Amino acid sequence: MPASLYLVAGKATDSVTHGFLPAAARLGLDVIVLTDRPAAHTDLPAPVVAVVGCDVSDFRDVVHRIADRAAGAGAAAEPAGIFSNSDFLQAPAALAAAYFGLPGKDWRAAARAKNKALARRHLAHLDPVFAADARAVPADAPYPLVLKPREGVASEDVFLVRDARELRARVAEIGARRADPLVAEEYLPGALHTLETLGDGHEVRVLGSFRTDVSPPPHFVEERLEWAPPPPETPQVLEQLAALGAGFGACHTEFAVHEGRARIIEVNYRLIGDHCDFLLADLLGVPLHEQILRAHLGSRLPPAVPRPRGHAVAEPVIADRAGRLTAAPGPVELDDGGVRLAYRPQRTVGDEVALTRTNRDYLGTVRAIGPGPDDVRAALARFRAAHEWTIA
């Protein structure tokens, strides 16, 4: 009898549809999707056996829906695991897992990671960073500051502001279109990195790191992620993650290194996104999505520590104007000499594109793995020259 995995989801994502659902099928699981957007999760492949409407932001409704289904369908629907890959739903999923006595993340760590103000307060003893409510920034604040939604994602409404006048203008601009609380944080200079980790409740394993290129200020659009050895300052990041309590399952952490000091920018307590999860799995040669699900089912990580098989780059194709996408390639996989290339679109021909100066402007992402940096960069340049993306 297949075990049941309850997947807590908001919008449909490629990481779930093309990553976690096939992984669940290989593990022989039945998947029940709990979502507040049932219409976005139609025609899902096996192993999805049901899509259940749920207020996924409220752990009480998540618990109720799981208990109700288990009572109605018997032992086959008893939860073997509860999992989410959504930034916004880590705490509700963690609380539901705790209710049923299942492996999962500490809900407090999930709440701290999502709420940037809580994270800064919790880490102040290790790494004091100026942070304040954006509407109550003191006159002596250390400008420039980074203005951002307290629980935002994808660089949306993130701006560098250089003085109090610019701060007030940006707060008013953002406040006119969203009511989310805003924070203003000290700008952290230095080289930008990510740290990708995976934990099973007994150990936290570093999978690797990417160097990140972002657009010029005042915006912070990620323009390129290139594989690189974790910097020497990585133990400082691991210490801060341990202080937050973020160690179970997948975690994607963004940080800056400057003059020997590593400072966390934000913690995304889920798997790296924008198709970099597929790149990471291919580079390491491991069933990464399966390993994450196994952790949520109570399994230990495999004894072998994965090692990268070459060099890798993820390079998004970014819209440079608003309009209708009239030409773009579909999914592509090909070999260019010793470099394996894959392109997965995030927009399709006919889509209307609104220029946001955020990661929402991605039209698709090109992934490349090859023997070395020069080979990979050259193959990426050839791929982009051979394909057309047109916004009219």
Query: Can you tell me the CATH superfamily of the largest domain?
Result: ATP-grasp fold, B domain
Order of helices and strands: EHEEHEHHHEEEHEEEEHEEHHEEEEEEHE
- Which structural class do you get from the secondary structure elements? alpha+beta
CATH class of the largest domain: Alpha Beta
| SS elements, strand count | 20
Shape: globular
Distance between the termini: 53 Å
Level-2 CATH architecture of the largest domain: 2-Layer Sandwich
CATH topology of the largest domain: D-amino Acid Aminotransferase, Chain A, domain 1
In this structure, how is the largest beta sheet organized?
9 strands, antiparallel
Helix content class: 25-40%
What is the helix tally? 10
Mean pLDDT: 94
Multimeric status of the protein: single chain
Provide the low-confidence segments as ranges.
Answer: none
Integer count of domains: 4
Task: Give me the Rg, rounded.
Answer: 21 Å
**Largest sheet strand order:** 13-12-9-10-11-14-19-17-16
Strand proportion, as a percent range, falls in 25-35%
Describe this structure in words.
The protein has helices spanning 14-26, 59-73, 90-99, 107-114, 116-123, 164-175, 234-244, 276-284, 288-296, 373-386, and strands spanning 4-9, 30-35, 48-53, 79-83, 131-133, 145-149, 159-161, 182-186, 191-199, 204-214, 222-228, 249-258, 261-268, 311-318, 323-327, 332-336, 339-345, 352-353, 362-370, 390-391. With 392 residues, it is of the alpha+beta class. The protein is 28% helix and 31% strand. The N and C termini lie far apart (53 Å). The longest helix has 15 residues, at 59-73. The protein is built from 10 helices and 20 strands. The protein has a 9-stranded antiparallel sheet, with helices on both faces. The chain folds into 4 domains: 4-102, Rossmann fold; 107-125 and 189-288, D-amino Acid Aminotransferase, Chain A, domain 1; 130-186, Dna Ligase, domain 1; 310-392. Strand 1, helix 1 and strand 2 (30-35) form a beta-alpha-beta unit.
